[in-house]
C-alpha cells in the first residue's frame, strides 16, 4: 500500500499518525482519570460517568453562548472559564449524588452499578428536556481552530495539542494530589483500610464525598474538552462508557500508573490498527485483545498489593 | 468479595437439610397463581394484540430467571445476557429466514434461494455458518448448545482466574459491545443493523397469524414454567446450596475442597441457556431479531427486571419482568418523556429501598399475614398440599 | 451565568410545551362548515377503515424519544403541518383528518408493535412514519400482513418495493449518480475516498457509488472506510486522507460521529474550500449539531434544501416557522415527510376512496405541483420522480444550491449493473 508514495510523504504520515495516537491517548486518559479515581480508589462502578462528562460539555455550551451574547470581547478566553465551571458543576453534582445515593451502597458495589445506571437515565432525560434532543454545536474561539504547520507536510491540530496539554496538567495534578498531599494520603488510607483509617481520626465520609466529587469534576473537564472533538447531545455520554471502563480495568484498578499505561497501549493499538485496517475491524480487534488479556490477567496491568 | 445484604437468609439455608421439600406450600401457591395468571387469566382478559405483547415480555422473563440463578444465588452479575438472548434469537431467526428465502420467494434476486440481505451484499452462496440452520432439529439443538458453549468458554476462562464481581460485570459488558459491533459490521452474514426480518413460517406453519401467536404464547408460558421448576430443582439441590454458600463466603467453600470455578460456570451456563430459550421464543413471537437486543442497554435493562422482581426469587423475576414492561408500555404510550425518569427512579428505588424487590416486599409484608390466614382457615388443606419430590 | 442558564432553560421548556400544544387547538378552532359533504362513507371505505362521515384517522409513527428523536422530530412536525393545512382547506373527500400519534421510541420492535396497533386497533387509513431503515424493515411485514399504507420519508438504500409503502424520499441511485456526474465534470474529480458509518445504508450507497465511479466515470476509488455507529475518533482516517490526497471525499457518516468527523477534519487543517467533500448524510438538521463553521464549503447532495428559491418553498418555510418557531431548520427528510399527507390526499381524491388496495393502484402518476422541492410525481414503483441538487454548506448553517439536475430522475430501487 505504500509503494506509490515518496519517503518524505511516508515519514510525514507516520509522524502525524504518531500524533493521532497521542491525541487518542490523551482523550482516553482524560476519560478514564475520573473513573480511575472513583472506581479504582473507591470501588464504585459509576455508570453515569459519561453523563457527568456531558454535563461538563453542556456547561461549556452555555458558557460559549453566554460569552457570545454578553462578553464577545472575552470570547477567546471563555474556554478556560468553561472548564473551571464544568469542573465545579460536575463535582458539585457528584458530591450531591454521593451524599444521597452512593454512600448507602459502599458495601454493595454491584448495586451501585444499577443505581448509577438509573441515575444516568434520569440525567439523560433531564438534558433532553432542558436542551432538546438535538445535538448542540459549541462554538470554539478562533485560536483553537486549525492546525500548526510543523514542517511542510506535517500538520498537527491545535485542539489536539490543547487536549494533550489539559490531560498532562490534570494527570500531574491528580498524581500530586494523590501521592504528595495530605488529602491523597487520607484517600489511600481509606481505600486500604476503612476501619483503621476511621480509627486514626480520618473523617472517612468526608474523604469519600470529596473523592467522588473530584472524580466527577474531572469527568466534567473531560466533557468540556471533548466539545472540541466530539458531539454534545443527551445520549453522547453512553458512547464513552465501555471504552472508559475497559481502560480502567485493563490498567488495574487503584493504580494511576496502570491507567496511564493502559490508555496508552489501547490508544496506540487502536490508532495503528485503524490506519492499516478499517475502522470497525480495528475497534473489534482492540476490544477483543483487551478482553482476551483480561481473561488471562484479570488483575490488569498494574496492581496495588493490598491485604484485604 | 461482595456481601449482599439480606434481611433474612434464603429459605433453603434457613430450612436446613432436615426438612427440605421441593417446594413449600406457599411456593406451590405462588406457582399455581403464576401459572393461572399466565395461562388462564391473561389470555381471557386480553385481545390478541396485547396478548402477543405479554408473550414478548415473558421471553425477557427467561433472562431474568437466569439472572436470579447466577446473580441472586451465585453472586455473579452478568451485564452481557443480551448476548445469549441474541444468540438464541439469531439461531432461530436464521432457520426461519432460510425457510422464508425459498428459491420461489426470492426469484427476483440475482442468486435465488439465499436471504435477501446476502444478495444485496454480493454473496452468491450460502455461507457455511448458515448451513446447519437448514435443519429444524439441529437449529433447536444449537439454540441451546451455542450459548451454553459460549458461556462455558467465558466462564471457564474467567472463573478459573478468580475474576469476580465487578470485573466480571464489566468484561461481560464489553463482550456485549463487541458482539453488537460484529453483527452490525458483518451485514452480509447477519443482516447488519436491520437484523433478520420478514420471517414467515416455522416448518411450513405460518407464525404471523393470530392463532399462531396464541399457540406460541402458550408454548412460551409452558416453557417458562418448566424453566422455573428446573431452576427450583437446582436451587434446592446441593448445587444450589453450594452456590449460595459461595456467594457469601467463597474462600470457605474453596477451602472445603469444592471446585468453585466449575459451580460458577454451571450457573452462568444455565443463565445463558435460559436467556437463549427466551431469545428463540422472542424471534418466533415477534417475527424478527436485530442487534438492538444484544447490546449493553438491553442487557442492563434485563438485569433490572430481575432486580425489581427480587433477585432471590424465581417467581419474583417473572412478576418483575411483567410489571416493568407493562409500566414501560403504558407510560411510553401516555407520557413518553416521563418514561426514562420513571425507569431511572425505579433502578434507584429498587437498590436503595427494596434490595429484594417485589419478592422482598411480599415476604416481609404479605406472606406472614397470608400464612396466618391460610392456616386459620384451612389447616387440613394446607397440610394436604403436595410436598413434591425431595431434592436429590 | 446563572441568568443565562435560567433563560435558556425556560425558553427550551417553553419551546417544548409549544411544540406539544400547537397542533391540537389549531384543529379545534377550525370552523365546521369548512368541510363540504363528501361522498358517502359506505362508498369510500369498503375495508373497515376508521372513516366516518366527518372524519378519517391517520397515524403518525416516529420516535419521539430515544436516540432517533433528534432526527425524527422534524418529520413529525412536517406531517402535522401538512395535515393541519389539509384540514384548513377542507380535508380529504370532505372529511377532517384525525391524527393518532404513536412513539416508536427508537426501538425497532416497538415500531412493529405500534404499527400493528395503528392498523389493527385504530384502523388508520394511512400511516406517516418510520425513519431508519431498521424501523421500516421491522414494520414492513406488519403493513403487508394487515394491508396498511405507509408513507416513508427518508432517503434510503433502495432494494425494496412494496404495494403498501410510498417512498417519498430518494432511493440511493437518485441521490448519488447525478451528483457524482456533477463532481466529475465540474471538479474534474479522478479519485474518490469513501468514509461511512458501518451499517446498511452507507455500505449500499457506497457500493452504488463505486460501481458508477469505476464503470461509468472510469475513475478510481482510492479508499473505503467504515466506523461503528457512535465512533468519535477520526484522526487516523484523516491521516489516510492526507496520504492518498483524493480529489473527492465522499461521506455517509451519521449521528454523533458526524459531528466528531467534521470537527476533527477542520482541526486537522483540511480546508473544505480547497478539498472537495461530497456528503449524502448532512442536511440542515445535522449542521445544527456540527456547527456551520466546521462544515462550511462541503457539498451535500439531496433533493431539497431549505434555501431553495421557489414560491412553493417560500410558503412552506414560512408556514413551518410560524407553527414550530423561527429557529427551526428544515432538512431534506422533513420536506419529504411534508409530502406524505398531500400525496395521500390526492391519491384518495383520484381513487375517490380510502381503500388501500385502490390507493396502491391509483398512486401511480399522482402529481404534486405545489411541493416545496418543486414538481414531484409518484412512479408506479411507489417511489417519487424527483430532481437531485448539490449545494454548498455556508457558515450560517444553510446551503447554497450550486447544481440542479435538469430533469426529474427516475427512481430505480433495483438498479441493474449496480448490485
Structure description:
- The complex is a heterotrimer of chains A (about 300), B (about 400) and C (about 425).
- Chain A is mainly α and about 300 residues long.
- Chain A has one domain (about 15-295).
- Chain A has helices spanning about 5-40, 50-70, 80-100, 110-130, 160-180, 180-190, 195-200, 205-225, 240-250, 255-275, 280-295, and strands at about 145-150, 155.
- In chain A, strands 1-2 form a two-stranded antiparallel sheet.
- Helix content of chain B is about 70%, strand content about 0%.
- With about 425 residues, chain C is α/β, with parallel strands linked by helices.
- In chain C, the strands form three sheets. In chain C, strands 7-6-8-9-10-14-15 form a seven-stranded mixed sheet, with helices on both faces.
- The longest helix of chain C has 28 residues, at about 1-30.
- The interface of B and C includes residues 208 and 339 of B.
Terminal CA distance of chain B? 30 Å
What's the shape of chain B?
globular
Number of domains of chain A: 1
* Largest interface, counted by CB within 8 Å of the partner chain's CB: A-C, 57 and 51 residues
Sheet with the most strands, sense and barrel status of chain A: 2 strands, antiparallel
Structural class of chain B: mainly alpha
- Helical content class of chain B: over 70%
Biggest sheet, spatial arrangement of strands of chain B: 1-2
The shape of chain A is globular
> Helical region count of chain B?
17
Instruction: Show unreliable segments of chain A.
Output: none
| Pattern of helices and strands of chain A | HHHHEEHHHHHHH
Mean pLDDT of chain A: 84
From the alpha carbons, calculate the radius of gyration of chain B and give it in angstroms: 22 Å
What is Rg of chain A?
A: 20 Å
Number of alpha- plus pi-helical segments of chain A: 11
- As an assembly, this protein is heterotrimer
> What amount of the residues of chain B lies in strands?
under 5%
List the helices and strands and how they pair.
The complex is a heterotrimer of chains A (308), B (392) and C (419).
Chain A: H1 7-42, H2 49-70, H3 78-100, H4 109-131, E1 147-149, E2 155-157, H5 158-180, H6 182-192, H7 194-199, H8 204-226, H9 238-251, H10 256-276, H11 279-296
Antiparallel strand pairs in A: 1-2
Chain B: H1 11-15, H2 25-45, H3 48-73, H4 81-100, H5 116-120, H6 136-160, H7 165-185, H8 187-190, E1 201-202, E2 205-206, H9 210-236, H10 238-248, H11 250-255, H12 260-286, H13 296-309, H14 314-334, H15 336-352, H16 357-377, H17 379-384
Antiparallel strand pairs in B: 1-2
Chain C: H1 2-29, H2 41-44, E1 55-62, H3 69-88, E2 96-103, H4 108-121, E3 126-129, H5 133-145, E4 150-152, E5 165-167, H6 172-186, E6 191-197, H7 200-216, E7 220-227, H8 235-244, E8 248-252, H9 256-267, E9 276-279, H10 284-290, H11 292-295, E10 299-302, H12 311-324, H13 332-351, H14 356-362, E11 367-368, E12 376-378, E13 384-385, E14 389-393, E15 399-404
Helix pairs in contact in C: 1-3, 3-13, 4-5, 6-7, 9-10
Amino acid at each position: 500500500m505504500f509503494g506509490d508514495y515518496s519517503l518524505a510523504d511516508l515519514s510525514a504520515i507516520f509522524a502525524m499518525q504518531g500524533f493521532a495516537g497521542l491525541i487518542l491517548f490523551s482523550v482516553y486518559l482524560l476519560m478514564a482519570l475520573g473513573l480511575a479515581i472513583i472506581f479504582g480508589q473507591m470501588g464504585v462502578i459509576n455508570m453515569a460517568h459519561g453523563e457527568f462528562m456531558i454535563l461538563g460539555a453542556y456547561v461549556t455550551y452555555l458558557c460559549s453562548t453566554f460569552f457570545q451574547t454578553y462578553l464577545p470581547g472575552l470570547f477567546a478566553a471563555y474556554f478556560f472559564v468553561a472548564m473551571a465551571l464544568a469542573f465545579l458543576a460536575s463535582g458539585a453534582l457528584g458530591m450531591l449524588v454521593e451524599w444521597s445515593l452512593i454512600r448507602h451502597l459502599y458495601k454493595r458495589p454491584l448495586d451501585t452499578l444499577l443505581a448509577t445506571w438509573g441515575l444516568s437515565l434520569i440525567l439523560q432525560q433531564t438534558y433532553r428536556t432542558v436542551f432538546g434532543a438535538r445535538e448542540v454545536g459549541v462554538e470554539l474561539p478562533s485560536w483553537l481552530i486549525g492546525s500548526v504547520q510543523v514542517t511542510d507536510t506535517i500538520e498537527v491540530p491545535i485542539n489536539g495539542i490543547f487536549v494533550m496539554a489539559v490531560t498532562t496538567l490534570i494527570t500531574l495534578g491528580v498524581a500530586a494530589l494523590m501521592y504528595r498531599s495530605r488529602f491523597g494520603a487520607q484517600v489511600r488510607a481509606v481505600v486500604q483500610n476503612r476501619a483503621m483509617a476511621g480509627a486514626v481520626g480520618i473523617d472517612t465520609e468526608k474523604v469519600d464525598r470529596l473523592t467522588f466529587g473530584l472524580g466527577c469534576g474531572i469527568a466534567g473537564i473531560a466533557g468540556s474538552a471533548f466539545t472540541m472533538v466530539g458531539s454534545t447531545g443527551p445520549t453522547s455520554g453512553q458512547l464513552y462508557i465501555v471504552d472508559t471502563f475497559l481502560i480502567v480495568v485493563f490498567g488495574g484498578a487503584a493504580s494511576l500508573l496502570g491507567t496511564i499505561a493502559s490508555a496508552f497501549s489501547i490508544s496506540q493499538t487502536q490508532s495503528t490498527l485503524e490506519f492499516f485496517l478499517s475502522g470497525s475491524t480495528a475497534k473489534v480487534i482492540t476490544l477483543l485483545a483487551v478482553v482476551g488479556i483480561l481473561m488471562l490477567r484479570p488483575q490488569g496491568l498494574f496492581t496495588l498489593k493490598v491485604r484485604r | 468479595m461482595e456481601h449482599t445484604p439480606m434481611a433474612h437468609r434464603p429459605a433453603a439455608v434457613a430450612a436446613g437439610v432436615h426438612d427440605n421439600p421441593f417446594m413449600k406450600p406457599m411456593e406451590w401457591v405462588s406457582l399455581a397463581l403464576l401459572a393461572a395468571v399466565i395461562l388462564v387469566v391473561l389470555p381471557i382478559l386480553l385481545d390478541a394484540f396485547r396478548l402477543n405483547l405479554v408473550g414478548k415480555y415473558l421471553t425477557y422473563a427467561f433472562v431474568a430467571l437466569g439472572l436470579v440463578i447466577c446473580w441472586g444465588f451465585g453472586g455473579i452479575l452478568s451485564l452481557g445476557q443480551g448476548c445469549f438472548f441474541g444468540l438464541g434469537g439469531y439461531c432461530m431467526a436464521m432457520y426461519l429466514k432460510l425457510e422464508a428465502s425459498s428459491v420461489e420467494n426470492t426469484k427476483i434476486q440475482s442468486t435465488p434461494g439465499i436471504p435477501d440481505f446476502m444478495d444485496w451484499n454480493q454473496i452468491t452462496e450460502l455461507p457455511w455458518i448458515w448451513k446447519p440452520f437448514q435443519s429444524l432439529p439441529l437449529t433447536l439443538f444449537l439454540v441451546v448448545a451455542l450459548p451454553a458453549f459460549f458461556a462455558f468458554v467465558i466462564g471457564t476462562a474467567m472463573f478459573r482466574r478468580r475474576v469476580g464481581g465487578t470485573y466480571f460485570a464489566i468484561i461481560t459488558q464489553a463482550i456485549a459491545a463487541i458482539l453488537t459491533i460484529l453483527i452490525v459490521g458483518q451485514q452480509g452474514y447477519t443482516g447488519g443493523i436491520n437484523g433478520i426480518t420478514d420471517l414467515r413460517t416455522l416448518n411450513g406453519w405460518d407464525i404471523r397469524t393470530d392463532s399462531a401467536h396464541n399457540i406460541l404464547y402458550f408454548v412460551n408460558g409452558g416453557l417458562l414454567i418448566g424453566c422455573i421448576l428446573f431452576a427450583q430443582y437446582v436451587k434446592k439441590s446441593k448445587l444450589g446450596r453450594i452456590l449460595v454458600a459461595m456467594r457469601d463466603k467463597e474462600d470457605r467453600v474453596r477451602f472445603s475442597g469444592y471446585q468453585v470455578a466449575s459451580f460458577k460456570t454451571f450457573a452462568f451456563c444455565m443463565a445463558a441457556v435460559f436467556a437463549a430459550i427466551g431469545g428463540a421464543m422472542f424471534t418466533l413471537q415477534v417475527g424478527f431479531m436485530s442487534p438492538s437486543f444484544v447490546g449493553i442497554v438491553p442487557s442492563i435493562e434485563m438485569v433490572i427486571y430481575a432486580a425489581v422482581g427480587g433477585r432471590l426469587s424465581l417467581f419474583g423475576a417473572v412478576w418483575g419482568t411483567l410489571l416493568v414492561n407493562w409500566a414501560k408500555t403504558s407510560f411510553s404510550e401516555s407520557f413518553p418523556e416521563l418514561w426514562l425518569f420513571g425507569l431511572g427512579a425505579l433502578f434507584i428505588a429498587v437498590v436503595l429501598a427494596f434490595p429484594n424487590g417485589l419478592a422482598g416486599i411480599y415476604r416481609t409484608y404479605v406472606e406472614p399475614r397470608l400464612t396466618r390466614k391460610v392456616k386459620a382457615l384451612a389447616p387440613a388443606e394446607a397440610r394436604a398440599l403436595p410436598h413434591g419430590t425431595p431434592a436429590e | 451565568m446563572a441568568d443565562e442558564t435560567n433563560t435558556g432553560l425556560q425558553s427550551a421548556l417553553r419551546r417544548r410545551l409549544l411544540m406539544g400544544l400547537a397542533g391540537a387547538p389549531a384543529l379545534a378552532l377550525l370552523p365546521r362548515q369548512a368541510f363540504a359533504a363528501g361522498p358517502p362513507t359506505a362508498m369510500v371505505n369498503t375495508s373497515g377503515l376508521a372513516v366516518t362521515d366527518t372524519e378519517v384517522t391517520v397515524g403518525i409513527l416516529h420516535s419521539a424519544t430515544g436516540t432517533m428523536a433528534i432526527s425524527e422530530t422534524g418529520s413529525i412536525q412536517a406531517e402535522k403541518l401538512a395535515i393541519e393545512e389539509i384540514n384548513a382547506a377542507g380535508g380529504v373527500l370532505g372529511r377532517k383528518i384525525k391524527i393518532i400519534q404513536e412513539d416508536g421510541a427508537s426501538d425497532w420492535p416497538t415500531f412493529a408493535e405500534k404499527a400493528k396497533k395503528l392498523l389493527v386497533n385504530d384502523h388508520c387509513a394511512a400511516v406517516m412514519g418510520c425513519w431508519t431503515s431498521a424501523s421500516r424493515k421491522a414494520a414492513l411485514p406488519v403493513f403487508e400482513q394487515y394491508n396498511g399504507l405507509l408513507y416513508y420519508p427518508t432517503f434510503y438504500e433502495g432494494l425494496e418495493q412494496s404495494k403498501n409503502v410510498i417512498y417519498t424520499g430518494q432511493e440511493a441511485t437518485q441521490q448519488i449518480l447525478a451528483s457524482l456526474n456533477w463532481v466529475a465534470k465540474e471538479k474534474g474529480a479522478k479519485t474518490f475516498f469513501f468514509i461511512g458509518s458501518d451499517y446498511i445504508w452507507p455500505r449500499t450507497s457506497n457500493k452504488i457509488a463505486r460501481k458508477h465511479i469505476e464503470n461509468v466515470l472510469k475513475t478510481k476509488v482510492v479508499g473505503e472506510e467504515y466506523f461503528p455507529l457512535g465512533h468519535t475518533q477520526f484522526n487516523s482516517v484523516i491521516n489516510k486522507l492526507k496520504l492518498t490526497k483524493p480529489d473527492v471525499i465522499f461521506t455517509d457518516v451519521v449521528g454523533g460521529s458526524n459531528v466528531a468527523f467534521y470537527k476533527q477534519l477542520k482541526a486537522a487543517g483540511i480546508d473544505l474550500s480547497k478539498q472537495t467533500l461530497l456528503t449524502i448524510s448532512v442536511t440542515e438538521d445535522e449542521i445544527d449539531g456540527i456547527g456551520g463553521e466546521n462544515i462550511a464549503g462541503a457539498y451535500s447532495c439531496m433533493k431539497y434544501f431549505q434555501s431553495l428559491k421557489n414560491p412553493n418553498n417560500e410558503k412552506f418555510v414560512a408556514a413551518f416557522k410560524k407553527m414550530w418557531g423561527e429557529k427551526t431548520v428544515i432538512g431534506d427528510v422533513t420536506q419529504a415527510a411534508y409530502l406524505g399527507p398531500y400525496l395521500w390526499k390526492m391519491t384518495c381524491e383520484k381513487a375517490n376512496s380510502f381503500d388501500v388496495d385502490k390507493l396502491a393502484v391509483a398512486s401511480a402518476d399522482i402529481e404534486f405541483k405545489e411541493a416545496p422541492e418543486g414538481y414531484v410525481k409518484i412512479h408506479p414503483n411507489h417511489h417519487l420522480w424527483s430532481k437531485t441538487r448539490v449545494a454548498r454548506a455556508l457558515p450560517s448553517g444553510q446551503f447554497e444550491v450550486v447544481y440542479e439536475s435538469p430533469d426529474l430522475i427516475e427512481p430505480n430501487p433495483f438498479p441493474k449493473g449496480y448490485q
